[in-house]
Every structure is written in structure tokens, then in C-alpha cells.
Design brief:
By secondary structure, the protein is an all-alpha fold. The chain contains nine helices and no strands. Helix content is about 70%, strand content about 0%.
Length: about 250
């Protein structure tokens, strides 16, 4: 039974990943999620169900529009594949529990804001406002969740980035996002998430500079790294903290 549930969760992630791409691209642009239907941005041809199969449509078409041959951005199938994979990981880690649901929703939020931040350098308030009340309530019902730890996670996460924002090193979207992420993963996991986000952001930014993709001091979206740091911390935070304490002890 477990393997069938795992397959279902993965397929669900792949399918929702396609929708999350649409949300991340349309919400910041002030567009409807329903109209107009998905179409090729080059030739304007409306996409059929055959064009909308997560990942598979991209592979079968060779990464091109079937109608005009224009190359399709790999961001679309990548978002779908990552969502499916992370949904599977959350299920394998937490099972069908409230913690598992929290993990799936965290992945959903992460994918949407990643698409948005990479495309527009923006983390939409509408997205955060949609997820915030869900997480506020959900965390309260997670077994063994300590309210103080989650509150401290939100205050410390948002507070640290607010200080950086005051000195011009961070956007307010990142501040609000990390406050929410801090509430989700709690204290002290938020510390792990912050340092992992900084390490990943610095590494990727350095690589992009070496490759000539970004210039020195050019802003790089930080939201995706905050989200990834939170996901990794939710999955492995206690293990990382325990290993660190054992090392210094």
C-alpha cells in the first residue's frame, strides 16, 4: 500500500507543480489563474491536454512548442519535477500526518515563490496572505509542536532579515517570507535555515559570476534560497543541530 500512496503523492506533486508555475508567473503580473488558457507565448496557440502532461510533454516535444518549434523554457518541467520529488520526500519522511501535510504545503509555497522571485524579483503578498492563515492554524494542531518555539522562529527569522533590509541588503518580501518560514519550522531550525540559505545563495551567486551570468553586486533573488533552507531544515534540522553540538562538544 505504501508504494501506491508514494506513487500517488509523486503524481500529485507533478500535477500541482504545473499549476504552481502558473501561479508564480501570473499572480505577480496581476493576471487571472483561469483566463486566458495556457498558450504558447510565441505563436499564441492554445495548449492542448497533450501539451500539458507534466514533464512528459516537454520531453516528447524535445523541449519545443509542437506548433511553432519555439524552445520552451526548462523552468516549467524543472518546477514540475522538483515539486513531485519533494512531495515524495515529505511523504517518506513524515507519512500521512499533519507534519506531512505541513511539509507538502511548505513545498507548494516554496515552488510558487521561487518561480515568482526568479521571474520578477518579487514575492507576492497575495501568495503569502493565502498561505499564512493555513500555516498559523496547521502548526497549532501538529502533535508535540511547542507554540513558543514557532513564535520565536517567526520573530527571529523576520527580525534578522528586517535588520538586513534596513541596511538595504534585503527586500521586504524576503522579510515577510522568512517570518512565515520561521513560524513553520520553529526555533532553532530557523537558524539552520538561515545559514543554509546564506551558504547556498553565496555559492550559487559566486558560480553565476564566474560563468558571467550575473555581474558583481547585481541582485540575486534570495527567496528561493530561504525556501530551500527551510525545507532542508524541516527535513534534517534536528540532525544537523545534533551533529554540530556533538562536534563542538
Amino acid at each position: 500500500m505504501t508504494i501506491f500512496i508514494a506513487i500517488y503523492i509523486t503524481l500529485l506533486g507533478l500535477t500541482l507543480g504545473s499549476f504552481f508555475n502558473v501561479v508564480g508567473l501570473r499572480i505577480p503580473a496581476g493576471e487571472s489563474l483561469l483566463h486566458p488558457p495556457s498558450k504558447c507565448p510565441k505563436c499564441g496557440t492554445r495548449l492542448t491536454p497533450l501539451d500539458l502532461i507534466p514533464v512528459l510533454s516537454y520531453l516528447l516535444s524535445g523541449g519545443k512548442c509542437r506548433h511553432c518549434g519555439t524552445r520552451v523554457s526548462p523552468v516549467y518541467p524543472l518546477g514540475e519535477a522538483v515539486t513531485g520529488l519533494l512531495f515524495l520526500v515529505m511523504y517518506l519522511k513524515f507519512g500521512l500526518t499533519l507534519e506531512g501535510v505541513t511539509g507538502l504545503l511548505l513545498v507548494s509555497l516554496a515552488v510558487i515563490i521561487t518561480v515568482s522571485d526568479l521571474r520578477y524579483m518579487l514575492i507576492p503578498d497575495k501568495v503569502l496572505l493565502f498561505f499564512t492563515p493555513v500555516f498559523l492554524v496547521l502548526v497549532l494542531f501538529v502533535p508535540e509542536a511547542r507554540l513558543w518555539d514557532h513564535l520565536l522562529g517567526a520573530l527571529s527569522g523576520g527580525g534578522v532579515l528586517l535588520l538586513l533590509a534596513l541596511f538595504g541588503g534585503m527586500g521586504m518580501g524576503d522579510v515577510k517570507l522568512f517570518a512565515l518560514l520561521g513560524w513553520i519550522i520553529g526555533w532553532p531550525n530557523v537558524i539552520v535555515a538561515f545559514f543554509m540559505a546564506c551558504a547556498l545563495g553565496a555559492s550559487v551567486g559566486g558560480i553565476l559570476q564566474v560563468l558571467g551570468r550575473v555581474e558583481r553586486k547585481q541582485p540575486v533573488p534570495f527567496g528561493p534560497f530561504l525556501a530551500l533552507g527551510a525545507i532542508l531544515s524541516l527535513l534534517f534540522g534536528p540532525d544537523i543541530i545534533g551533529a554540530y553540538l556533538s562536534f563542538i562538544g
